[in-house]
Specification:
2 domains; two-stranded antiparallel ribbon; single chain; alpha/beta; Rossmann fold; five-stranded parallel β-sheet
Length: about 240
């Protein structure tokens, strides 16, 4: 891996400065120190930042609780993590999955004690076949596999198939999101029954995709469904 890091990340992906050896990250030491870690005062269910540190849930989760039980999010969707995610998804930088998944696993371990039902299996947010053919890979699945490898104990399940090809939530405003067609997801019940599951994705925008997935998984017999994502958008359009 050190050889690959040296080959592909000779310059920091954000500031473009040449990196010092040994190269262990796509970011230089300075940029890595300035990563936008999510404010610890956030909703435990959906990871929306909160103003009051004594508050555990946001107003939306109180009024209309999502079907997933908890959310662990690493970063606010700001510079430079937004650039990393963009390149990871749209510029064929799939090798970033190794370090990004490692960061996600380390955060999961640090917050393991906060989980009501520690997961035994990981499930990546599914991608419609048309998008998969166009991109060549499902970035959520690469993150899940990287996390599983780092853990040495968590398994990745593939029980889901997405039938609806909806536009990305990040490309829609609030009114468009409300009018968007529901996410249609097929689940194989035998793979998820009585299991504690952890959904993996790169970014939570509205949470509608993960909410639909969690609903389907619980309907199929899953015992619990939590979420771990790389980044959380903090402002809706």
């Amino acid at each position: 891996m050190n050889y690959l890091n040296t080959l592909f990340f000779q310059r920091c992906m954000t500031c473009k400065h040449k990196q010092m050896q040994p190269i262990t990250s796509p970011l230089c030491v300075t940029c890595q120190k300035n990563l936008p870690w999510l404010n610890p005062n956030h909703c435990t269910q959906c990871a929306t930042p909160l103003l009051d540190p004594k508050t555990k849930l946001c107003g939306n989760c109180i009024a209309s609780p999502p079907h997933f039980d908890q959310t662990i999010a690493l970063f606010s969707y700001e510079h430079p993590i937004n650039l990393l995610i963009h390149d990871f998804k749209f510029c064929n930088r799939w090798r970033l999955a190794t370090i990004l998944g490692k960061w996600m696993h380390e955060t999961l371990v640090s917050q393991w004690h906060t989980l009501k039902n520690p997961p035994s299996h990981l499930i990546a947010a599914p991608m419609h076949n048309d998008k998969l053919k166009k991109r060549g890979y499902n970035q959520a699945l690469l993150l899940a596999k990287s996390m599983a490898k780092a853990s040495g104990s968590l398994d990745v399940l593939l029980p889901c198939k997405k039938l609806s090809n909806n536009p990305p939530q990040s490309s829609l405003n609030r009114r468009q999101r409300k009018k968007a067609s529901p996410h249609i997801i097929v689940i194989h019940p035998k793979q998820v029954k009585n299991k504690n599951l952890l959904l993996i994705d790169d970014v939570i925008t509205t949470g509608s995709t993960l909410n639909s997935l969690a609903k389907s998984l619980k309907s199929a017999g899953a015992n619990s469904v939590s979420v771990c994502c790389l980044s959380r958008t903090c402002h809706s359009k």
